[in-house]
Structure formats: structure tokens, C-alpha cells
């Protein structure tokens, strides 16, 4: 019997109240009809649980922290279960590190990880912390980062693809990205749009005939995936800046991008992806690419599982 898709929410350590990412994860699990695993990391021997310097009973402090963590997890799980979500909560006694997060995802055989974006001190926008960047680089599967604020499942999804590499023999990254976005949008009843940027900063891109060729290839690709003409957006500019500017003047709930573009950085994430994740202004699903040619292990027809390289 093939198991259903598994969603994994990584709960922040210091969460004393409800968080947007967990609400989002619950709504998404219910829309897909799949289980939601919640991993609440608690390092009882780390600085977070040690209490103030000079505390007489550090063990008491640690046990108090654990009890509060367990209560939060129990209460949040019960609330989601009342909404019809199949919840599988777990206290993970380990440090909140990228390697521990990745190990947990592998152990639970997660297909998609959901995590909150964190507000930055002194800044108006949210983004990824250094730990988030590290985790995205080592994560075995795709990661969905949820923007703070009112939570809702996507109503309008934008998939970003790179036509410069579509002609590459055997390239499947764009297909993986658009299929993930399409299946997710279908499950949530959302409109799906597709965007590709004609990189005007790249050598030789000033040729109008080259622009027309790329645009035609983009239209052909989008049509193959059933994207309506009015939902296709081919825009000239610098990729990260152009996509972020387009998002700022549009009303998308979710952006779907590849997490390892071909212009690779040492982090293994990609220059364009890094620029977008810093300034997207909406929730972002980072698909780990390239995708291995492996069967999708899910009983749900509208799944978003993607094997990692």
C-alpha cells in the first residue's frame, strides 16, 4: 500500500502562542486530505532551557520548559484536530539546528516541510534567518516558508520558471516547478499564473529576435501545462528584481520557485532564488531541484512531492 503525502511543520522553539505557519500547514493538510506531522524541537541541555545564569535548579527549569512545550503542542494539536486535520505531534529532544531539522525530515519521510518566516529586528519585512538559509541548502525535500499575518491557503499562485535552460537536454526543473504549483493550486482551488524573466543583463540578450524566440518558447511551454494566456507573464529585467517588483504590484498568496537555480552559489540555493526569498513579500515554496526521476509516493492525486537530488 502506498502511503499518503506527508507534510511536516517545524515549530519554532520559543513559540508560546499560535503561529501563522502552523495554521497554514493545517489548512493545507486538510485541503490535500493528508496527515500533518508537527515537530517541536526542545533541547533540554542547550542554552534555551538552562535558565538564567546562577540558577540553583537548572533541571527544574528544563523540566518546566519541557512541560510548557508539551502543553503548547497538545493544545495546538487538539485545535487542529477539531478542524478535521489528521495531526501527528512530536517533541523532538534535539537542538534547533539545520542538520537536526534535516535528520527529522528524513526520519519521518516528509514530502514537504512548512516553516514560518521570522520577523527581522528593526526591519519592516520578514525573511530567512542564517539558519533558514543553511536548512534550505541541506533539506532533503522542498520547503514552504509562510509569511506572518492573516493565514489562508493559497488563492492565487505564481510559478517562476527559467526559459534560458528549458532547451537544455534532459532538463526537468521547470516541469517540476510548474507541476508542483499546478497540483497545489488545484487542491486549494487557486488560480495558477506562470512567470519567466528575460534576463536583460545577460550577454547577447539585447537582440529583439532572441526575445521573441524565448517568449514563444515560454508560451509553448505554458500551453503544454494548460496555463491560460492571460495567466502567462514574460517580463524583461534582472530576474530577482523583476519577479519581486511584479509580486509587489500583484496579489499573489504563494510564489513557487526552484531552490537551486543553475547560477549556483556555494550555498547550493541559487542567486535568483536567494534574491527572491529576501524580498518576495508573500509565502514562498522553494522546490528542491534537480528532481530525481522517482515515482510520486502518494495516494492523493494532487500531491506536491518532489524527490531531491
Automatic annotation (TrEMBL):
Subcellular localization(s) per the UniProt record: Cytoplasm
UniProt keyword annotations, A-Z: Cytoplasm
Keyword field contains Hydrolase: no
Summary of the function given for this chain in its UniProt record: Required for resistance to DNA-damaging agents.
Record's protein name: Universal stress protein E
Organism for this UniProt entry: Pseudomonas reinekei
Pfam families, per the entry: Usp
SUPFAM superfamilies in alphabetical order: Adenine nucleotide alpha hydrolases-like
Protein family: Belongs to the universal stress protein A family.
Cellular component terms per the entry's GO annotation: cytoplasm
Domain annotation UspA: ranges: 13-146, 156-288
Amino acid at each position: 500500500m502506498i502511503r499518503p503525502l506527508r507534510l511536516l511543520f517545524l515549530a519554532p522553539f520559543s513559540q508560546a502562542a499560535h503561529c501563522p505557519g502552523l495554521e497554514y500547514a493545517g489548512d493545507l493538510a486538510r485541503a490535500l486530505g493528508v496527515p500533518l506531522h508537527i515537530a517541536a524541537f526542545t533541547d533540554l541541555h542547550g542554552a534555551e532551557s538552562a535558565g538564567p545564569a546562577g540558577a540553583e535548579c537548572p533541571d527544574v527549569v528544563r523540566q518546566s520548559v519541557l512541560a510548557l512545550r508539551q502543553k503548547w503542542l497538545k493544545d495546538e494539536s487538539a485545535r487542529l484536530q477539531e478542524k478535521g486535520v489528521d495531526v501527528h505531534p512530536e517533541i523532538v529532544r534535539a537542538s534547533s539546528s539545520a542538520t537536526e531539522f534535516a535528520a527529522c525530515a528524513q526520519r519521518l519521510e516528509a514530502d514537504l516541510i512548512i516553516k514560518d518566516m521570522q520577523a527581522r529586528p528593526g526591519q519592516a519585512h520578514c525573511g530567512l534567518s542564517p539558519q533558514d538559509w543553511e536548512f534550505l541548502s541541506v533539506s532533503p525535500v522542498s520547503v514552504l516558508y509562510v509569511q506572518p499575518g492573516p493565514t489562508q491557503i493559497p488563492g492565487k499562485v505564481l510559478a517562476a520558471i527559467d526559459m534560458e535552460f528549458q532547451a537544455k537536454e534532459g532538463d526537468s526543473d521547470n516541469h517540476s516547478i510548474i507541476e508542483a504549483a499546478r497540483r497545489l493550486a488545484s487542491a486549494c482551488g487557486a488560480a495558477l499564473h506562470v512567470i519567466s524573466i528575460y534576463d536583460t543583463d545577460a550577454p547577447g540578450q539585447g537582440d529583439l529576435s532572441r526575445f521573441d524566440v524565448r517568449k514563444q518558447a515560454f508560451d509553448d511551454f505554458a500551453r503544454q501545462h494548460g496555463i491560460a494566456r492571460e495567466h502567462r507573464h514574460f517580463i524583461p529585467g534582472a530576474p530577482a528584481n523583476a519577479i519581486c517588483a511584479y509580486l509587489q504590484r500583484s496579489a499573489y498568496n504563494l510564489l513557487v520557485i526552484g531552490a537551486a537555480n543553475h547560477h549556483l552559489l556555494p550555498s547550493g540555493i541559487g542567486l535568483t532564488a536567494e534574491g527572491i526569498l529576501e524580498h518576495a513579500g508573500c509565502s514562498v515554496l522553494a522546490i528542491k531541484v534537480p528532481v530525481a526521476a522517482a515515482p510520486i509516493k502518494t495516494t492523493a492525486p494532487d500531491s506536491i512531492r518532489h524527490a531531491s537530488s
